[in-house]
Amino acid sequence: MNDRHEALVRAFYEALGRGNLEVMERCYHPDVSFGDPVFQEVEGRDRVMAMWRLQLGVRDGLRSDFRDVRADAHAGSATWTARYTFSRTGREVVNEVTALFRFEDGLIVRHHDEFDFKRWSRMALGRPAGLLFGWTPMFRKTIRDRAHQALDEVS
């Protein structure tokens, strides 16, 4: 275990829970890259922070909690839960996320979130749309394109 990196991940999620973008940004390396099933790859601290501003600004805001933080000298992980209202449908989403981290110069240089896209689409869209379309490549592309368009607007 690396106490310093574990504390860094904890500080990041505590700041996320409070919506404190300044503290979140200080946890990231200038060359950070972020990936998840929706945004896929986002490069650079400015753009990654724009993505978090977008996420924290959704309808009633993003609420989160975290657990199972682990870290060593090079990598780390955590589990976190995101709670928010999906703006297109007004449906409540509770998304369980596994986060993986890489560290460089005492900061997070790689942050990758993984979650079940099919499960997310059922919550975000409801039945039958989420159940019927949530797994299709065309639906995923539509969601990704909208996310990147929104990110371009806030960047």
TrEMBL record:
> What keyword terms does UniProt attach to this protein?
Isomerase
Q: Does the keyword Isomerase apply?
A: yes
InterPro entries named among the record's database cross-references = NTF2-like_dom_sf, SnoaL-like
Q: Which residues form the SnoaL-like domain?
A: 9-111
Q: What Pfam families does the record point to? A: SnoaL_2 (PF12680)
Reply yes or no: does the keyword Membrane apply: no
One GO MF annotation is: isomerase activity
| Annotated protein name in UniProt | Ketosteroid isomerase-like protein
Q: Which organism is it from?
A: Nonomuraea endophytica
